[in-house]
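Appendix B, Record 12. Input sequence as logged:
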Amino acid sequence: MTGERDTPGARTSVREAVEWGAVGHPLLSGLYAYWDAKRGDRLMPARADLDPLEIPQVLSHLILLDVTHDPLRFRVRLYGTEVADLRGRDLTGRYLYEGAPTSLGETTRPWNLATVETRRPHYVTGPYEDISDKRIGTFHRLGLPLSVRGERVDMLMIGLVREWEA
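Logged structural output:
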């Protein structure tokens, strides 16, 4: 079952990825299947359950965010090389959404909050424009919750892929 809703003010679609078939990119479908296998009968796996050597094809597309509560904050633990190229900088070690608001922050914060609050995967896809070289394409983003104790999300694993139009 897939619940779909439009993100306010954006031309993207957010879908709760309840089945691997709901994820619209093969690399991210593989990441979802890996996460699902690692969680077993739990709501979500822990970071310790994951082995980067088991998913080398997706490493450059990964973001790992430490999630702290009271107040809720997101710290970048890992920022894959493809993601850094997409964003134009490496955010490893930085806290997201602190300082001056950005359009990227306004877009991604609700997605991260949804994954933390629902403790469920979320898949997002939509148009992407690279203003530096005026290319247009599509981005695919899969947010997956991780938890040490299985109840409260303490890390997000995010896969991010872009495809360019021919």
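Residues 4-164 form a domain with the Beta-Lactamase fold (CATH 3.30.450.20).
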